[in-house]
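Appendix C reproduces, verbatim, an entry submitted by the partner laboratory led by Prof. M.T., so that reviewers can inspect both the input and the predicted structure.
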Amino acid sequence: MNDLLENERENLLQLLAKAQQRLDTLKETVKTANGGLAGMDIRIAIGDAITPLNVAFEIAEPL
């Protein structure tokens, strides 16, 4: 059972690291977004940032 929990912990840590990278990208996108497509670029970056957090939530929910 401990191995399973350790594996889940490692998966969560990897997903959170990916989420942090995407949050950093989102921050940069917001700083540099310009023009008519800025809103779309920001929405796409938000969606990209949320995805690994949603997956992490699904993994953590039954714990």
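Helices lie at 2-32, 38-60. Additional entries are available on request from the coordinating office.
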